[in-house]
Amino acid sequence: MDEREQLEALQERICQLEGELLDCRSLERALSESEQRWKKLVENSLTGIYVDQGGRIIFANERFARIYGYSREELIGIESHRLVHPEDRAFTDEMRAKRLRGEKPLSEYDARGITKEGKTIWVRRMNTDIEYRGTPSILGNLIDITEEKRFEEELEEANAELREFMDVVSHDLKTPLIAIRGFVLRLLRNHAGEANNQVTEYLRRIESSAERMDSLISDLRAFLTSGHVRYHFQQVASREIIEGVVNDLEAALKARKIGLSLADNLPSIYCDPEKMQHVFQNLIENAVKYLGDTPNPRIEIGYEDRGDMHQFSVFDNGMGIDPRNHKRIFKKFQRLKEARDEQGSGLGLAIVERIVQRHGGKVWVESERGKGATFVFVLPKCRETAQKCQGGD
How far apart are CA 387 and CA 153, in angstroms? Predict the structure, then answer.
């Protein structure tokens, strides 16, 4: 290669290097702009953001520093476990170790923290594993939920007081009612052969009123606790719940000669079994009321799979319900004159609606006058959805 060719090759190479240099500078500017954007996002975040590397904090945004009461400079290099309550350190250390081993720990969890002043706080953590400057690290997001936890504790105390109050009230009100009904029944037996029908009628009215008051106390207690006590969710076969209710109502169903059928595909559901028993019992008892004097009365318990929801239905071929009353019947103390049972408290369907809603579902009625009625309710299949709706298990 002569000198001219060498010079041309050198000039070409210089041009290539200048082009590469321009590309590098352009890339550098783009990276700098991107870094500034991400930095702004991180700094303006409403959540505390940090990077844990080797058990030490190597990055923390301003929100994270404020949550723990440190300056950002004080946090850099501090051991992570110093920010965790001593009783929760074993748990958080286990979560960190699992994540760094490539396992799948909880992606979100609550734990107590310790501020610079030694104050205990509650934080909700959302962590993920990353490579930071070539080293396995943990990118963490957290929010302060101290007030939320304090509210939960106060609510639990209030619920405990409510349960205790209702137990006392139920006992104190039902005790004299039991005595009244006992004396009335004794008087009815003692005067059974006497001709004073008016006295007998009065005694029966007293007995009927006492029975209604007893039912009202029970339903009122069920209504209050259905919305305020903690639910205990578990996976359970819905058929077992329904069959238990049917067995309890067997005498009433036979007395009215009511035919009852259950769907073959009743599923396993995630629910509070005791509360779900109230739902089916109230719906079946309600169906009995609205059957009236229907010839060949029947009740059908149905089920349909609705993707991410379970759908149950309770059908009766009774007198039906005017569409104008479809919403009204779920309100407290509402009883329709068409119902056969005059002793109802008017709380049964309100209890059903409250329990179903606490399970993350909804309930409605499909009916017309003279064409029977179908009460339908849906429940989420997803445990997380159900737990979120009732405040956690």
Answer: 17
pLDDT digits (tens, 9 = 90+) for 169-198: 666 676 777 777 787 888 877 766 665 677
Q: Which pair of tokens denotes residue 207?
A: 């007995």
pLDDT, tens digit, for every residue of 212-231?
Answer: 677 666 666 666 665 556 67
Instruction: Give me the CATH code for the 45-143 domain, please.
Output: 3.30.450.20
The CATH-assigned architecture of domain 232-393 is 2-Layer Sandwich (3.30)
pTM: 0.51
The rounded distance, in Å, linking the Cα atoms of 200 and 294 is 31
CATH number of 145-229: 1.10.287
- List the beta bridge partners of residue 309: 306, 380
